[in-house]
Every structure is written in structure tokens, then in C-alpha cells.
User: Fold these one by one.
Assistant:
Number 1:
Amino acid sequence: MFGSQTSLALHSLASIIPVLIILFYVYKRDLFPEPPRIVISTFFLGVASILPIQLLIPVVEGIGENLNLQGEDYYYYLSFIRASFLEELFKWLILVLYCSKLNEFDEPMDALVYGVAVSLGFAAFENYQYVSSYFINDGAEAAKSVLIHRSYTAILLHSLCGVFMGFYIREAIFRKENYKLNLFLSLFYPVCLHGFYDEIIFSPSFSSYWIYILLGLLLIRAIYLFQKERKLQISGLFEGNIKKHNYIRNSEVILMCCLTLLFLVFGLQFFKFF
């Protein structure tokens, strides 16, 4: 019915739709929405982050080749360093160096919204690349299959990393006593989550079903965070940048300890090279 170029354009458009749906949903969770121009600019900065990442990928891959990694060691390096660290680092830099400096960044919910926006910007371009590449090389059916699979996995993973990155940046800004720790966790936490996801994909030692378990648990936690933040907005517990309510963070401490333990276990084989 459609020519090949028209079909490619439709597939490319379809690759962006899940991103826009998630971004719109998250934007509407904010009782006091951010200016659309700021959210859009944050989104496109996420898209632009692909440029420095692409420049650094050959460098990181070259280091991996020099280390002569094999088997699980190679999968670990590929997952946590080449993919996860590079991608999350530049999202983090945008949040810290741009978003957190804005006058509009004046309440904790903003960190979650901007975190998702920058992550989905990168995810949109990445998804477009995957879908268009599969369409050109393997045909429309292959592109459709990749589109459906990534809509429920990779895009969701990026948005969830943005939520948790934003959460800890929020903690750093609005809870001054642990600024450096929370700033570190705002990068370390999503790097671990993203790395675990990629490790499951790359390593033959893991069943792909673990992806859905990981994403399911993180999604439940993210929904809880948004609901909690919205209730705090409604109840008027925040005035500007002054926090009037202390969060009960025991669950976050437990989750962080578990994540760190998994990170060390996954990296056990890799660290023997050092």
C-alpha cells in the first residue's frame, strides 16, 4: 500500500510515539506543570547527548580491546561501562549543569519530570536508530518486531532511570545534609539499573525474562514515588525550596544496599583484571 520510503517514515514516527506518551503522562503528574519550553528543551538536550556519546564510544571500546576481556568480563564491561555509564553520565550532566540551575526548578517534583524528559530524549533518538536500521537491513516485519519489543523494555528502562536520577538529584538539592552522597547516587543508581538491564540482554547466562521482572519492580517503585510527590504537592507541604516534611527513606536505603551488592557480584569477574 505504501512505498518503502513512506513505510520507513511511518515506522520512524511510530518509534517516537511511545516516548511522547510516557513524557505526556509524567508531565501531567505534576500538579504545578513546568513551562513546556523548558521540558521540550530538556528533551532535545537528551537527544543531543548522542553526539558526545558517539565520539567517546570508540575510545571506551578501544580500552576494552586493550584489556582483552572475554566472556562474562566482556559482557560486564559492555553493559556497565560502554553502554550504561556513558549514556547515563551525559543525561546526568544535563540535569546537574542545566536543569538544576533553572529558576523554574523550584520544587522536588521538577527533578522527576526533568529526569524523565532528558532520558526520553536520548531514548527517542536511540529507538529511531534501531527501528530505521532494522527496516533498511531486514525489512518492515523485523522493524515492527523491534519497535514493539523496545517500546515495552528499552524506552521504559530509560524513563525509569530518569525517574531515579531525578529522585536523588531532588534529594541533593532539597536535603542539604547529604548533598554529595545524593549527588553521587543520582548517577550511580541509574548506571547500575541500566547496567543490569544490558547485562541480562548481552550475557547468555541470564534469561530474558529477568528484564520484565526488573522493569516491573522498578515501575511499581516509580509509580509510588510520583504518587507520593503528588500527594505532597496537594497537601501543600512544600513552599518554594523549603521542605517541611521529612521523607521516610528506609526503603531507599535497603534498595540501595541491594543494588550495590548486585553491582559488586556482577563485577566480580571483571575486577580481577585490576
Note: The mean pLDDT is 83.
Number 2:
Amino acid sequence: MANPIEAYRDKLRTPAEAVALIPDGAFVFKGNAVGEPPALVQAVADRARAGGFSNLRMSSLLPMRAASESILAPDLSDVIHWESLFVNGFDRDAVQSGAAHYIPNYFHQMPRLLLEFIDVGVTMICVSRADRHGYMSLGTNVDTHKAAIEAAEIVIAEVNNQMPRVHGNSWVHVSELDAIVEHDAPLPELPAVPERPEDQAMGQLMAEVVPDGATIQLGIGGVPNALAKALMGHRHLGIHTEMFVDSMVDLIESGVADGSRKTFHPGKALYAFAAGSRRMYEFLDDNPVIEAHPVSYTNFPPNIARNDNMISVNSTIEVDLTGQCCSESMGAAQFSGTGGQHDYARGAFDSRGGKSIIAFYSTAKGGEVSRIVPTLTPGAVVTTPRNEVHWLASEYGLACLKGKTTRERALAIIGLAHPRFRDELTAAARKLRYL
């Protein structure tokens, strides 16, 4: 094997030199979320504007501001054709207008889609500094990046010394790379979410059904943050999650989440991707308690179920009176993506003592619209089918739907609605013959 330090130096390129390796017409996978390589995406945009590309397909989950200001710029939409794997605020308008398109997927299957169903020609990722053995960590984004590297004919890495080196199955060796660009830049941070009164109410309600020793999966937002605060009096919690967030740092540092009773990777906190504050990124760096793994591992439902007392908490946009959850569209308009909600709904329920909870505010648009509806809006995507829904939570309570008739479900779900909408929901349930 060649000396890894020499191999690293031999592969160093400027951003412009690196993206010149990309064939016109290629499908380019760009690093997800915090793992987005800002110098490389800017270089692709620059080359496209200079006429170096006439047709590229590009894709990732959760593009960040660097992509929004470069490859997703409206003036490049005829050259760079965006195919989103999880829609967010930076590509939502393009997808909803038809200028870009969405690839439906279950998160745990995404590595397989990249390897078997999508013809990935080039992968561009962000990695940590290299060690003396030539290994770099994928840091915040192991999720689909391991598969994207394996699938691609050309792999370009942007080395950022601010990317944490994370333990687990996160390593990429210099021999796997075709070009390396060095570019130090602060990692994107997510703003703190203001707490709402409903958050605290839901956090307290859900904390009551989380036993000591449980393993938890939380997302981002006011409700998961409130639940994390409400869990501060618990003991021996574990973490097995697709997304690692700041509230998990608090649980680990306080000693609440020590992982000592985990039945799958005991003592370790597992994640697939991480996004949050600089404090959290620094916490991940070389922390032996933390392990990052591909999402095909962390989100594979049978693996989730290997954690006894697995508790998952996810959110939704709209719930109908049978329990169907639309968590990714506004009617037919794609708003986000399926993500790992269905993965954890199934995995947590199959866990011994586990609970899958889908939480939501009872109203939207300043209280003018009920999130609980008689039937889903026409065109709405069913993210979690009614047969998969275990628990529902709003600020008005918790309801377990498993084993309940459509009548019992309707009554329980109406009880989670804002009081001002309960009478009309009851009338609708009667019209639908649920009551």
C-alpha cells in the first residue's frame, strides 16, 4: 500500500480542478445536511456558469445554505437538475414549482437505492482531517455517505478540520478518494427553536410513558426538546437515533443517558447524522461514547427493535380520524420527506416494551386550522399508515391506537383535538359511520 500521507498529497486539488473531473451528464450525489461540501458545490456552480457543464443531475438529503446559494440558484436550473431525497426549506419551492423533483424513499433503504437503483457517477462529501494512517471520518453524516462512496465512479472529498472525527462505522480511507480539496469553514448550525406552551405540555405527557432504562429516538424541534427536558429526572436512558441533536448532549452530560441498560450497543449512543450547534459538534469529536453508522443500520427496523423499551418520537402535519398520518406533504405539495418516521414506527413497536409516538400540535395557522381532520386532504401522502401508528400525542393528551376499532380510534383521536374543533369532528365521524 502506498504511503497514505503521500497518497493524500498526490490527490490534493483546488476546487476548480476537482470538479473538472466530473463528466458532463453525470449524476452527482452531494453530501447531506452538515456534510455538504461548500467549496465543491460553489465550484460546480462556477463551472456550470462558465459553460463547463450543460447537463448535470444532482441530489442529496437536506441541502444547506451553501447549496442554496450555488447549485440551487434559479439561473442554473436548466443545467443542474435537482432531485431531492428529503425536501427542506432550501429546495421546497423548486420541488413544489416543478423545477426540481423528489425521490420517494424510506430512509433506511436509501443506501440500497444509491447502490442498486440510482446510477451515481460522482460523490462529493465533506470529511474530517486525516490521521497518519490516511483515515478521515464522515463525522456528522455517515447516513448515506458510505453507500454513496461505494456506488460512485469518482469520489471527491472536501477536508474540513472543523468536521468532528466520530467513532463507529464512519471512516473513509484516502485510497477510496479520487481527489481531495482542503477547505476549513464553520459547520452549518441550526438555530434554537423557541419553546411554545404546547411543547412543555406534550413533553411532560410523553415523559410519563418513558420508563427508566428506555432507549430513545428524538428528532428536532420544540416538542423533542421539551421531552428531553422532561426526561432529566429519569435514569439510565440510552440513545439510538437517526439524528443526533443538542438535547442529547444535555442528557448524556447530565448522566441521564448513560446507555447502561441498552440491549443493542450497550453504553454507546448511535446515530446516522447530526445537526445542531458548534457545542454539539465539539462534543462528538473523538468521543468514545458516540458511534455513527449508516442509516441502513441505525434505521433498519429489526435493529431498532433490538433495543428493549425503545421509544421513538416523530412529528406529523395532519392526522385523520382513523389514525393515518401525513407527515410530508400539504395536500399534493411535497413539504418534506418520509425520512425515518416509518422506520422507527415499526422498529419501536416491535421492540420489547417499546412505544412509537407521533406528536403534533392540535392546530395550525394560529389556531385557525385543526391538524386532526375527518379525512386527509386530497393528494396527501400517507407517511405512516394507520396500521403502523402506535401512540398519538397532542398538547391535550396521549392515545394508544393499537388494538382499537375505528370507532374507538375516532373517539380517542377527537380527544386529542383542540376543544373548538371537537364537535365538528364528532359530527364528521358520525357521517363517516365511525360513530
Note: Residues 249 and 341 are 22 Å apart (CA to CA).
Number 3:
Amino acid sequence: MKKKNLMQEIWKARYLYLCLIPLFVWLVIFQYGPMYGVILAFKKYSAKLGIWGSQWVGLSNFKRIFMTPIATKAIVNTLQISISRLVWEFPMGILVAILLTEMPGKRGKKVIQTVLTFPHFLSWVVVACILRNFLGSDGAVNVLFEQLGLDTVNFLGSERLFRPLLYATANWKEMGWSAIIYMAAIAGIDPTLYEAAECDGASRLKRIWHITLPGIRTTIAIMFILAVGGIMSAGFDQIFNMNNAMVADTARILDIYVYDLTFKSVPDYGFTTAVGMFTAVINLVMLLGANQVVYRLTGEKMFR
């Protein structure tokens, strides 16, 4: 009976399901179809023999990841940068959303929100060019230092300053955009809760702590789980455009390492596929682990 009712409901919405056909075709062709190439991770690829004819080497490519010093250093760099991003970048969207929500006056709030959101629409190519114009060896900041009689600073070529610049520019570019999600969640909180708290004498900080943050707890949990699920990515676009020879050791994450192997040397597709698969598996494990940890701590989870 249930199957019959289900088929009836599907038939009633048959035109909507027909609209989904292009999506499914796209998924099959461009997402699931290329997945057979994952077997390259277990082979020593030869263009002459093709994917199926290449020599099977088992887990040798994965063992090379941990036996190659540059690869292990790239793993360490990736984890360090990604964890630091969680500390310095993830909370900024929440903070900006709360500050904008608490601001009096609609006009000023809209202006500031627009100013903070606009950088999101700039590509990292453009942002990197802006940084070079301002912080390069002959950029505006160093020219100003010279005119003031101060020593110039190699901002973009300093390993000590490279990662702080990553976090600062990423916050400048993305915190306004990420705040939109949290502002939408805050808008869904019952305003009578704030009115009741104000009548009881609760200060603004207490209202934020006891009403706003618990009210957006589910959104924070989901966004945190997604952020942890991409921990092995570390922001390729940004690092690729800000990278240079002087900070190569500090900036070499796994994605940069794979890019260098593929385009700057004789490509080893079996090994680079193994690195990509290793990254994907770690991201999946971290996603599932973060989901369980957040569930145990807050009772919220992304999926059951």
C-alpha cells in the first residue's frame, strides 16, 4: 500500500522529476563517471598502456607519501594552516554577524554590511595583485617607510609573516559573506526572548550569550563540521596566488605539492592520485568525526 501511494505521489510530481534529469545526467557524467580514475592511485601509470593496462603496485604510492620528506612536510603545513584557519577565521563570521545585528540604525548597518561583503566577489588573483601593490618590496607601504626614513619590510617574502597574511586577507575577503548565514539564523530567533530578557535587566552581553548564541547553535555546529571536513584543503587558490620562492617551504600544502608534481616536473599520475585520494579520505574521516564530537558536546549534528 505504501509503495502504491509513493508511486502515486511521484506520478503527480512527474514534471518536477523530469526537471531533475539534467542534474542527474551531469552528476553521472562529470562526478561519478571520472571516479574510475581513482584506480590510478594503485597503479604505476603509463600513457602507452592506459589506465587499465598500467602495472598494479598496490599501496606503494600511498607508502611514498610518508616516505617522501617534501610530502610529509606538505601534510604538516596543511594541518597547521587549516587548524589555524579554524582558530582565526571561523569565529569571525559569527562575530561580524552579532556586531551587525546589534548595530542601531538600518542605513549604517546596510552600508557596513555591503563594504564587508564586497571583497568576497574579488578573485584571489585580484587580491594577490592588491597585496603586491601595497605590501611588495616597491609597494605603497614600503615607499612610505622609505620616505619616513624607516627600514623596509619584506612582507610577502617573509616566512614569519606569510601565514598571518593568509589569515588576515582571508578574513577581509570572506568574513562579511560568512556572516550572512549567521545573520539569517539570528533573524529567526523569537524577538520576544530579547524583550523578556531586557525587562529582567539582562545586559546586551548577557542577551547575546544566553539568547543569540544558543539560538544559532545549530548553524554554528553545521558550519564547523563543514569546516573541519575540509581540513586537508587549506585554501589552494589563496596560497597559490600569494606563493613565491621565498616562502615556498612554508606555503607548500598538499594541493600545491600535487600541482608542482604535475606541472613543474615529470608527472607521476599514480602518486598524485594517491595524494588526492589520501586527502579525500582524511577529509571524510574528519567530517564524520567532527559530526560525532559536536553531537556529543551540543546535541546537534549534520546528519544521523
Note: The CA atoms of residues 68 and 74 lie 10 Å apart.
Number 4:
Amino acid sequence: MAKAKITTVFYCQNCGYESSKWMGQCPGCREWNSFVEEKVNTKGTASKASQKAAGEAGKPSRLSEITLREEERMSTHIKELDRVLGGGIVPGSLILVGGDPGIGKSTLLLQVCRHMAADNKKVLYISGEESLKQIKIRANRIGEFGENLFLLCETNLDTIEENIRHLMPDITIIDSIQTMYQDAVSAAPGSVSQVREATNVFLQLAKGLGASIFIVGHVTKEGTVAGPRVLEHMVDTVLYFEGDRHASYRILRGVKNRFGSTNEIGVFEMKEQGLTEVANPSEFMLEGKPEGASGSIVSCSMEGTRPILFEIQALVCRSNFGFPRRQAIGTDFNRVNLLMAVLEKRVGLQMSDCDAYVNLAGGMRIVEPAIDLGIAMAVASSFKNRPIFDRMAAFGEIGLSGEVRGISMIEQRIQEAVKLGFTTCVIPKVCLRQIREMKDVKIIGVASIQDAIDLI
């Protein structure tokens, strides 16, 4: 009998492209320096997941014969998470949760386990990084757990698959995918081959048993899930935890969702007993806003169907050096430079010898063009050292000619501002016809950036 021959294969960590030799640039995704070396068996037996996938190949079906019914969703009893998932957990779905170390991924999923177990759902929490006692300590901090939560500390895929098929849980948590390995794959845990094979195994289990599986994934320094990019393509939903782990707030963002919107976000606050929901993110973001200070204005961004108000701060001062310094925190740096060039050319504000700093207070990361008007007014306010009316909010996109262009969902933005006590809204003039009559708010339409600066 011929022995299995071990050869060296190179995989692209970004897209999973396979090559027999190392290449500087991947032909598949054009990424540089993304190839890693792995040893594989050329005559090894196929993995169990691959064998099942080949053996369970079905016959073609007519499109007209396929019946549809509305997906039954299981509520996690965490409204912010349900919002991001599209209304709850779909049975048989595979969900990937990524985020920086210590951001709160395991804490949130343990809270999901607590609520689902209280709903008489059978839940299995599989950890490859913590011991049973460590999980118990974190669980005691969160609260009381029911009898339907089962814990397993294991990294062998064959043992995990056997336990899942025996227990038949409704919800399974895998923490984390980078620690799982299968003996048939001759590569280290966390490698491209092991991560891809492990995801394939959990995909077959989720679809075959109709059970929902959450997979925790570590992220790289670039902010993407470690391992092959194909991992995100295989799962049904990809969620990212954002925010500074030293701060109290957390943002859960859906970047892929086959069962709902990909633009929704959930806002949480980290407390001693775990993650708590922030029901009104706008109020949370505006806490501590100064009154009567120049360079400060409130703008609004749409995250899915949710309008979120936040404060834009700008500081413009004369530079002591020949090359002024520019810095943007929370928004696109190049966009800020573009808006300052528009202010110089179209409004006549000479800021070529000034340092300029723009900050989105609260730690939000917003790149929507609708905040252009707020950034421009904040910069002009700081340059002129004139405060903007405290109860004023501004939103609109600015073009290179200095015109203020229309934006979407203008009425929802105004209603959110009114709800928090703002009495004046500066919006694009072209959007006035989209607005019905509103009480308790003065709406000012501006056609150009000059019209907006005249309001300061």
C-alpha cells in the first residue's frame, strides 16, 4: 500500500488561492505578501465533511416546485443583537463573530446562551481557549444560568462533531475557530487548511441538523478575521465587534447577512455584569457636549434604518511650521482635506497656514458623505472662533463646486434631532420638497456651502 506523500503547498490567506510555489502577489485577489506555506498529504483520505458533501449530493429540482415559507427566527432577548441579525437567529444558520481580543465577543455569546437556555433551548458552548472553571467564573459574573446550557472544552473536530450529533443542541457556540483541528489535515491549528476544513464541518452540521452555530474568529492587525478570506464567504452572517476595549462602548456591525440587512449596528456598553444595550445611541453619543464652544456641531448618520446623532468637533489654529498638520479621528482624512480645500476656494477662508484637527466625539467611525456639511461648518466655526447655536444640527453632502447636494432619509434624520431637543436643522435645499410639515423645529435649506457658513 502506497504511503501518503507530504508536499508543500502555498495558500493565500486573503482568498484561499492555492499554488505550488510562493508568489509575491496573489493571482486571485491581487493581494501582496499573502501566501503562507503548509504541508499537506497528497494521497491522504478525504475529510469526513468532504465525503458527506459528495455522498449527499441531491438531484436538481424545478424552481416552480420549490415552496417557500417565512423563516422562523429565535429571539436572543437582546434587542440590539436581534436588530443586527435581522430579527433573530434563523435555525440552521452559521454565524461568524469577529473582533479584537478583550472586546467582549465571548461575553456577549455567553449572555446569548443564558437567554436561550432560559427559553428551554438546548445550548452547547464549546471552548478551545478556556477551561470549564474559567467559563464558570465569567458566567457567575453575568447571572444565573438554567439547566439547558452544556459546556465542552475540546479542540478535536471529530470529538466535537460526535458530541453535537449526540446532544442535538439548538444553539452551538464555537470559541474559537482558530483553535480547532482535524487529524486528517496535516497542518497546525489556525492554518488556512484547518480553518477552512473546520468551517466546512460546522457548515455541514448547521445545514444537516438545522441547528444554529456561532463561530468566534480572531482578527488580524488590519481588522479582518484571521485565516482565509473564504471563511467569510462560507458562513451566512458575519458580525464585527468594534470599539476601543479600554472604553465602555461597543458597536456590533453586520457586514454580511443572508437573512437581513447588512447596514444595521447594535450599540452596547460594557459593565461589570456584562454587556448592556444602549437603547438610545444618539443620547449616549452626545453626553458631555460643550455649550457655547466654537468648532462644535451635531450631525446625523444613518446606520441601516437607525439614525444616530453625534458631535463633530474641529480645532483650527495657526501653525508654527511651514507644513501645517492635519488630523482626522473617526472619519476619512482625505475627505477632510477635500472639504478644507472647498472652503478655501469657494468661501475664501485662508487655512493653508493652519493646523486642523477634526474629531467625531464618542468613538464612532463615520464615512457617510451626509456629514460633510457638519464638518465644514465646524471647521469654519473654529477658524472664525464663533460658536454655532447649541440646538442646531446640520447634514448634507458637499460637492467640489461648493454646492450642497441632497441626501437620503432626510425626514428620519430630522425626527431624531427633534426627539433629542434640537430646534434648528440645516439641510440641503433640494431636500425641502421631501419633508412634510413638522412642528417644534426650524428647517433651513442651503444651496451652497457659503449659505451655510453665513449662518455661523
Note: The two ends are 85 Å apart (CA to CA).
